Amino acid sequence: MGTVGQNYKNGALTVSIRGGLVLLAVAALISGCARPAATDARPQRPLKAPPAPAADLQADKAVVRAARLRAEQAQIAAARRWGLRTPPLTAPPAPVTKPRITTRRGFEVDGHEEKGLPPVFTTIPTEQKIVFLTIDDGAEKDPAFLRMMSDLKIPYTAFLSDYLIKDDYNYFRKMQDSGVVLNNHTLHHPYLPGLSYARQKREICGMQDVMEKHYGTRPALFRPPYGNYNENTLRAAGSCGIRYAPIWNEEVFVDHWEYREEDQRIHPGDIVLSHFRGRQDWKGTMTDMVRRFLDKVTAEGYAVARLEDYL
Predict the structure, then answer these.
(1) N or C: which terminus of the chain carries fewer CB neighbours within 10 A?
(2) CA-based Rg of the chain, rounded to a whole angstrom?
(3) pTM reported for the whole predicted model
(4) Interval 89-102: pLDDT, tens
């Protein structure tokens, strides 16, 4: 276009054009004030939450301490209520990585591992001072036992036989509702090695059917009656969906203990056996048995853990 030094006619045109340019520049400036240009856009970072005031943190800690104190007081009261010498110890958290479970040496059948048979074991490999309470058969159905175990928050595992529980399936449903895992101990509690493979399978798989019907699940754990088994037992168990065959290292009664090991002591990871029994068979009740069990393990620095948490 022309400049100011051009003739008047062209100059008029120049002024008009320059005036238009000024108006466009002003409009652009006003528009730029209204919203930033696209080329100046920057990603917005979220604002960080301000740190909690020190008073709030102290209040949270106080709430946690108060809750812990209430739990300890409740445990002391429960222990006193059930006649324990001292409150039971609290088990450590369940392991994130489960230990590898293998058959105890001397308890194998021919080709045990190669055939993928369920492992037979008496302890869980751990260095922690924990033991596992397991209770067999289902003959005694003591309501006080359920209250005691729930009150004290003691974990345990049940191995059930149908011929003993069928008169009151609901008792063990209450047990399951409290968090106890119910497992397989055969239909009729026979001496399994004396039976054919087919009959052993009926005993084990038949109990799986009972458990599924009444408790909604087919157990992964099976305990052979009397702790006796052969290769057919474990083959049949595996075919019925059984993954583990825990037996025991100690047995606790209402008035004494029995031990598998020569040192006559409990050890880290030991599985302890007892039975659903009452005064008809024992010199006491199931709550008396639990009291004897807890007083001993607590005095020796052991806590009771949940067996299934380690499998």
Answers:
(1) N
(2) 36
(3) 0.80
(4) 999 999 999 999 99
